[in-house]
Amino acid sequence: MSRTAVVLFSGGQDSTTCLAAALKQYDAVYTVGVDYGQRHRVELECRERIRARIESILGTHSLKDDLLLDLKAFGQLSDCALTKPEAIEMNEKTHLPTTFVPGRNLIFITYAAAYAWKLGAEAIFTGVGQADYSGYPDCRENTMKALDLGMETSLRIERPLMNLSKAETWKLAETIGGDALVSFIRDETHTCYEGDHTHFHDWGYGCGKCPACVLREKGWEEYVANLKGR
Ligand code: ZN
């Protein structure tokens, strides 16, 4: 019997690493993305390029259809720097970055679960991690456990990055697909909050200044210094 998985796939480093993991483990892999009215379309464009090439890097033949959910209504709910042109910084009241959209991951996973159920998939992959940014409440292990409880028991939520640092996430990509996959993820994924896809650095494209770029640079440097090839 063929094994099917659904991957929440944004076109960033984390979800692309998850996609690679799923393609290696499952016979049929479907991707789900969310258009929630992002300020920058570049991540959505990266998704298409990554989907077109990742299997040639991995030597797999498992990739199936992509579903892009239109959740623009979500933008109406949130004063969020990802959908509105304000600066990305820490909110002094909530101690969360202004990029935080309350419950975003829960909404995405709930939609993915409905899709997975329809496809007869046995697992959903999500790139959420506790090391992510400034502790988004809906990226925490306990939130994911609550989700597990709310699902059919046959559907697993796979979180391969849950306890990994950004450096360890690069290392995981190396383990899955060697240097070829690491280079592919570095060159093709997008993380920058400012939507900068013109400036190329050792660690990939980005403005180099926003919180996402700073985190990505730090993770890459730690990976190269301590983990690469070991
Ligand atoms: Zn940036």
Task: Write a brief caption for the model.
This protein is 44% helix and 13% strand.
Topology of helices and strands:
Layout: E1 4-8, H1 13-25, E2 28-35, H2 42-58, E3 63-70, H3 73-77, H4 104-119, E4 123-125, H5 141-150, E5 156-158, H6 166-188, E6 200-201, E7 204-205, H7 211-227
Helix pairs in contact: 1-2, 1-6, 2-6, 6-7
Bound molecules: zinc ion.
Any descriptors?
single chain, 230 residues, alpha/beta, 5-stranded parallel beta sheet, globular, binds zinc ion
Structure report:
The protein contains 7 helices and 7 strands; from the N terminus they run E-H-E-H-E-H-H-E-H-E-H-E-E-H. It has helices at about 15-25, 40-60, 75, 105-120, 140-150, 165-190, 210-225; strands spanning about 5-10, 30-35, 65-70, 125, 155-160, 200, 205. The chain is an alpha/beta fold. The strands form 2 sheets. The protein has a 5-stranded parallel sheet with strand order 3-2-1-4-5, with helices on both faces. Strands 6-7 form a two-stranded antiparallel sheet. Helix 1 runs parallel beside helix 2, helix 1 (about 15-25) packs across helix 6 (about 165-190) and helix 2 (about 40-60) packs across helix 6 (about 165-190). The site of zinc ion has 10 residues, from helix 7.
